[in-house]
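Holo model, pyridoxal-5'-phosphate. Inputs:
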Amino acid sequence: MEKKRFERPIITKLNTGMPNKIGLKTEYQPIRSIDGVAVKELIENYGSPVYVISENTMRSVYRQAYQAFSTRYPKIQFAWSYKTNYMDAVCKVYHQEGSWAEVVSGFEYDKAVRNGVPTEHIIFNGPDKSIEDLEKAIRNKSLIHIDHFDELYTIIGLCDRIKERPQVAIRVNMDTGIYPQWTRFGFNYDNGEAWDAINRIMISGKIDFIGLHAHIGTYIMSANAYRIAGNKLADLAVRTKAKYGKAVSYIDFGGGFASKNTLKGAYLPGTDTTPSFDEYADAITSSIINSEIKPEDMPTIVLETGRALIDDAGYILGTVLANKRMADGTKTLIIDVGVNMLFTSFWYDHKITPAQDFSHHTESAKIYGPLCMNIDVIREYADLPPLKKGDQFVISRIGAYNMTQWMQFITYRPKIVMIDQQSKVHVIRNNENLDTITQLEKVPEHLKSIKK
Ligand SMILES: *Cc1c(COP(=O)(O)O)cnc(C)c1O
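Output:
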């Protein structure tokens, strides 16, 4: 048996939640395993770095969110935001839980179809839908969320050729007290543009206007912003009913709930400041329940939550490459995870936890990735116990956006594994290699040989 490491007992004053000038002490306990699988084993078997997704966390967070809404309102439908993480295995977990698909490009649309999502359960958002995309979505009776007038006119034009009535909603932007306002997507409520779009749709006589949509932003820290959005969307629904006798069948509140990550520059950690699903659900459902929409017309509430569902379920595990002291005395740590694999490190102070025992002393260090670029900084400062070359660590809450916004740069992207609810590990995306990276390249004949 390995001899246990002795450390003398120490008494430390507990300053819970009190950051010093460079933030909070990062960690008190190592993370030795994830869902019953040892970190060391994961790195040994699947390489370093490696992304890890916990199916158990995915499902339990989804169920918490679903419960928060469904206990307050009878008709709730989630639609998984593909761009947040479109690994097929990830999407399938949410689809198994009952989620529809929310897509913002032809590529994501095709991925959702291939994943077996019934096409009438695919919500097609975004400003970039080609004629072919729109035609396909109309024929498939998918839910098209119109972004701008040019798109509306294109759809009206397509109606003459396609003998299906497009199923559409409009995306609405508005002042909800969140600044800067996202006014670049959809039609503005406050200046009457959204109402104008609805009238043009209704007057066309060729389109089924069935829903209203807003996605007011991302990482929205105020649940009340959704209440304001709900009031404005309900107003449009009521006016549509009054003028045309037609009730919308759903109101879609988009995504935007904050995850528990800590934004850069935030004084308190995200775990202390992020609103709960209950707070968001209360604001959203009460805005519809207390509106002038008649009980028999109560719409389904659709939620396209991305970040807040998946962030906690994702980890990236890695290894310390080196310790270095810079000329000005700053202690730095070089790790094998760079910003190319952790895009969200531009916004978040990610939590980095050693995977092995450590002493109670900490030193603040600047943490660099392995890329040959000065911007490759994972943490400006992190209060960490001393780590040495070869030590392993876990970066938590990275499930959202990193596996879609990653960049292939100077090295291969690593494996992604999913740990299922029986603690079995599955590779859900293989690592890249020289062949996978270069398979789309072509060398002109005259350059095939490098001998002149
Ligand atoms: C990105 C996006 C989402 C998901 O947003 P989160 O902030 O990750 O919850 C939902 N709907 C639309 C239209 C989006 O563009």
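The first helix runs from residue 39 to 46. The mean pLDDT is 94.
Archived with the compound record.
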